[in-house]
Specification:
- With 318 residues, the chain is of the alpha+beta class.
- Among the domains are: 1-47, no CATH class; 123-277, no CATH class.
- The protein has helices at 61-70, 90-97, 162-166, 184-198, 261-270, and strands spanning 123-130, 136-143, 152-156, 171-176, 202-206, 215-221, 226-228, 235-236, 240-247, 274-277.
- The strands form two sheets. It has a six-stranded antiparallel beta sheet with strand order 4-2-1-3-5-8. It has a four-stranded antiparallel beta sheet with strand order 7-6-9-10, with helices on both faces.
- A hairpin with a 4-residue loop joins strand 6 and strand 7.
- The longest helix has 15 residues, at 184-198.
- The chain is rod-shaped.
Length: 318
């Protein structure tokens, strides 16, 4: 039997059924070009190996990036959940339990920020130093905020008479002549301002000191508790009975937490300071200090009524 492979190594292709070719010059030749004796090997018995496809060219780097961006992200693997439990994530569960984390019932009231609550209108009384009249300590009334450069101020929601805000633009003198070398008058002006502040419902704040005469404020209450008024810390004066104004670096009250009222005043005097009784209010709500009473001239008293004197009887004629 002839070799089914031709000279090139390719398998010879035969037809399945021999069909004589009448036009062929060779007798007994099939239309496929082979003789009948050459047909023992059929096509289905010959395994023809297909040529391997040529490798595709590698894509460029920019094409790989665009293809990766176009592909959707891979879904996370599914996690089996026990029977009877919810497949929702923890966030959804917490949102049902706590509406503040999202979702939940809308009937739960939301927390309101303190910044959204409008502040009530207030009146501020500021202690201000002025260079006029050899140094003057003034009281300056303003609305909602203290005066810039104030040494101290009090803030109240009480109704303040309009004339205190309008007269002389809210300014009034507390004491004059405090700019001299002797600081006593300056300390007295401070103590008077603290007493004015104690007459209003609200807080008192020591803001700053005058460089030439820095002061320290100490207060005591009915329980003889001694407290230093710290800078920029509001304090309630409603229970204060006495205030001491001393030099800033004074050690007269260092480490003192309680002291009898008499010794409290003595310590202020020994430190070249001043003390002033301001008195505590009997009730939490204090009334505003009374306005100064105008001088009233006394009305002349009525003249006493004249009494009738009986006329003397004339002597009888001789």
């Amino acid at each position: 039997m002839p070799d089914p492979l031709n000279a090139c190594g390719d398998p010879e292709i035969y037809c399945d059924t021999f069909r004589i070719d009448l036009t062929s010059e060779s007798f007994g030749q099939c239309k496929c070009g082979f003789k009948n004796a050459d047909h023992p090997v059929k096509m289905k018995d010959v395994e023809v190996e297909a040529p391997a496809p040529a490798p595709a060219p590698a894509p460029a780097a920019d094409q790989m990036d665009s293809a990766a961006a176009a592909q959707p992200p891979a879904a996370p693997p599914a996690v089996a959940t026990p029977a009877g439990t919810s497949s929702q994530p923890n966030g959804s569960f917490l949102s049902k339990c706590c509406p503040c984390l999202g979702g939940g019932s809308s009937s739960v009231p939301k927390r309101v920020s303190r910044l959204s609550v409008p502040k009530k209108p207030t009146i501020c009384g500021s202690l201000v130093y002025d260079d006029s009249a050899q140094g003057t300590l003034q009281l300056h009334y303003t609305r909602d905020a203290p005066v810039e450069g104030a040494l101290a101020f009090f803030e109240t929601e009480d109704a303040v008479p309009e004339f205190k805000l309008n007269s002389n633009c809210g300014r009034s003198d507390i004491i004059k002549g405090v700019g001299g070398p002797n600081p006593r008058k300056y300390y007295e002006g401070w103590s008077q301002f603290v007493k004015l502040a104690q007459g209003w419902t609200g807080d008192f704040t020591h803001l700053a000191n005058k460089d030439a005469k820095p002061v320290a404020l100490y207060i005591t209450d009915e329980n003889i508790k001694v407290t230093r008024v710290k800078l920029d810390e509001p304090i309630d004066l409603s229970e204060v009975v006495c205030v001491a104004i001393v030099p800033k670096d004074c050690l007269a009250y260092s480490g003192v937490t309680k002291l009898e009222l008499g010794m409290f005043k003595v310590n202020a005097k020994n430190a070249n300071g001043v003390s002033l009784d301001i008195g505590a209010a009997s009730s939490p709500t204090r009334s505003a200090p009374p306005s100064p009473i105008k001088d009233v001239k006394p009305s002349p008293s009525p003249a006493p009524a004249a009494t009738e004197v009986p006329e003397e009887e004339s002597a009888p004629a001789a």
